[in-house]
Amino acid sequence: MKELIQSGIQWGNVDFTLSDILIVILVIAIAQLLIWFLRVLLGRVFRKTNIEEGKRFMILRLLRTLIYAISSAIALETIGVDLTLLWASSAALLVGVGIGLQNFFNDVISGFVLLFEGGVRVGDELEVDGMLVRVERIDLRSTRVITRYGNLIVMPNGLISGQTVRNFTQGDTASMLEVKVGVAYGSEAKMVERILIECANAESLVIRRKETAALFQDFGDSSLNFSVYFWVNQPWSRRVISSNIRFRIDEAFRKEGIRIPFPQRDIHVIAPEAE
Fold first, then answer.
1. How confident is the model at residue 274 (pLDDT cuts 50, 70, 90)?
2. What is the CATH number of the domain that holds 196?
3. 157: three-class secondary structure by DSSP
4. Residue 135: how many CA atoms within 13 Å on its side-chain side?
5. What is the pLDDT of residues 143-168, one digit of tens each?
6. Which element (helix H / strand E) includes 10?
7. Residues 13 and 85 reside in one and the same domain
8. Taking all residues of the chain, what is their mean pLDDT, rounded to a whole number?
9. Which of 8, 22, 84, 210 has its CB 3.0 to 4.6 Å from that of 231, i.e. a possible disulfide?
């Protein structure tokens, strides 16, 4: 039995005995058992805390990777593999791979930032590159978002962390919207102001605790230009809200006889002089 355990095979300059193989299997088994124990322990901790799902996934993934890395190093050292020589021989390869995958590593690091900084969370409504999206899942390299049209988009984490992102969910959830309208010259400006404010406040999704304001913006080429500003706490529905207010403005203007003009140009035709 002793001779069987001490017997083995040779791979390169390293001799593997049966005992070395058994030790490697034991190390792997212990690593698997440790991962299972941490998963159960952290599961109980997570249930008692408010840590979001994305951070839970990242913590478990990091611990599992760390345990596998340490157990692999222990197993290789046990069977006599020189890790220093291994790392030295693969240094040039790692540098080349690192250069080729720099965008990948940038996305991974950005994933850590998003998950642990807390600036973006699952369920948040964001405006990224002019597009309104809702975060469905944050992974190590990418973030899954849903647009207002129901389309699933996978965004690299570097795109979200590398630019200014407007978060409608965190902080003050109220968001100010603007509806522009032009009226014909000769319209009573104060009446237009009153109608715009009344039409905005008539929308049920407009926040009453914040002031609604109508501003006389400018004397345009063909119209008096106004804007009405109002606050909502459902930016996902902002197009519907703005549309509802425009319907009310159009109805109120027709009732009061206020015209919304179209651009007009005066054309002067000069007849050629008679010879």
1. low
2. 3.30.70.100
3. helix
4. 30
5. 888 888 888 888 888 888 777 787 87
6. strand 8-11
7. yes
8. 77
9. 210
Q: How far apart are CA 159 and CA 129, in angstroms?
A: 9
* Same domain, residue pair 53 and 76: yes
Where do the H-state alpha helices sit in 49-201?
A: 53-78, 83-89, 91-100, 102-117, 157-161, 189-201
Structural domain contains residue 98 = no
Cβ proximity of 71 and 27 under 8 Å: yes
Domain count, the chain: 3
Say if residue 249's pLDDT is above 90: yes
Query: Is residue 87 over pLDDT 60?
Result: no
Task: Give the CA count within 13 Å in the CB-facing half-sphere of 64.
Answer: 12
99: in domain: no
Residues 145, 129 share a domain = yes
Q: What is the DSSP string of 57-87?
A: HHHHHHHHHHHHHHHHHHHHHHTT--HHHHH
Instruction: Name the residue range of residue 243's domain.
Output: 175-256
Q: E strands within 105-245?
A: 125-128, 131-138, 142-147, 152-156, 166-167, 175-183, 213-219, 224-232
Mean pLDDT along residues 126-142: 82
Q: Name the CA radius of gyration of the chain, rounded.
A: 33
Q: What's the whole-model pTM score?
A: 0.57
Copy the structure tokens of residue 32.
């698997």
Question: Dihedral (C-alpha) 31, 37, 39, 44: value to the nearest 10 degrees?
Answer: -170
Q: Is 250 left (phi over 0), alpha (psi -120 to 50) or beta?
A: alpha
Do 10 and 66 fall into the same domain? yes
Task: With cut-offs at 50, 70 and 90, classify the pLDDT of residue 261.
Answer: confident
Instruction: Look at residue 274 and tell me if it is in a domain.
Output: no
Are 14 and 77 members of one domain? yes
| Nearest CA among 58, 39, 45, 50 for reference residue 114 | 58
Same-domain status, 162 and 193: no
Same domain, 180 and 249: yes
